[in-house]
Amino acid sequence: MARLVAVDLARALAVFGMFAVHVGPMATPGGGVGDWLLELASGRASALFATLAGFSLMLIAGRFEPKTGLAGRQARARIVIRAVTLLVLGSALAMTNFGGAGILNFYAVYFLLALPLLRLRTRTLAITAVTLAVVTPQLAYVIRALLTESIVHSVDSYDPIARLCGVGVLDLLLTGLYPAITWMTFVVTGMALGRLDLSSGTVQRRLAVVGPAMIAFGYGVSWLALRLTGGAQKIMDGMSAMKEAGAMKDPGLASASFDSSVGGGLGGPDAWGLLAAEPHSGSTFDLIGSLGIAITVLLCLTVALDRLSWLRRPATPIIAVGTMSLTLYVGHILVILALPGEAATPPQSASAVLLFCFIVGATVFAAVWSRFFRRGPLEYLLNGATKLASSVR
Known about the structure:
There is one protein chain. By secondary structure, the protein is mostly helical. The protein has one domain (2-391). 69% of the residues lie in helices and 0% in strands. The chain has helices at 2-23, 33-61, 69-94, 104-114, 122-146, 149-157, 160-165, 169-175, 180-194, 201-229, 231-244, 284-307, 312-323, 325-338, 352-370, 377-386. Helix 4 packs across helix 9 (180-194) and helix 13 packs across helix 15. Residues 246-269 have low confidence and may be disordered.
């Protein structure tokens, strides 16, 4: 049971991380522990979210043994219903001033793309994840480099989703902040983790090696490669130029600047992003390092709750946050939009105090709500919608 509670606790930390990105102060390079945590949250919180989303898919499709027959068809139908619901909700949020910074509509695409993988075994899923991590960043770069503004405009003009909310299929698959082409690596890794018995000592020991090794490789090799090639300075110069030009409305996402443009041409300055491990860079190093953090966080929480049973009680309010992450994620966006004078994220009033208020407010709400209800408000609605899957035969 501890392994599932650990998933909820990890999801709560991801929620708090998203709060930090959206309403927290900007991290100061070389600052203290608080600045280090803020820097850690940037990009890695959303990566942890996506990894746990893959884990959750296995809870629906069958953890250790894939559901087959009628049960399998109904499980797939539940996932499709969830995807459609999230697409509608995410597109509605994209129509607000929050824009393309929301992740829910991207989740919808991840769920649909994961359908053919639901019956794969752990080893196959792990191999698939490794292949995606190695291949898709380079593939995404080549495709984006070949895109022109006219092509993007032409595609979006025929895309009803893009015309409705500004975040269309092309954004969801390739050019958005969480493009499926690279972010499916997190989802598939989460699916592989979902197939594992995390309470097994053998599994824990293996993950204790794999997680830190991925962190060391992703960030260590990237750091070394950029400094040996001079790419670090070129990336910084490019980011500074974009900031001076006013291209980056969200300073917290500035690290994505060298990976988000289209039509840059092969071999252009954005190519240095393939060696970077910065948040949202979408490089192989970024994917591997972020996955290492996600695996390590989930493992540490699992072991802690399993071996230190007394932690469960004080952690209960935070665990409650993880059980209603959809409600609190949408809720925090609505609160941001309601803040006086706020037209985009992060708010101009972003501060440690504001972040603290968001975290405490979400924890208190979740703790009180969970005393009376099993699920959060939006979780109830989503669960009710998926009951339609029982009619599948």
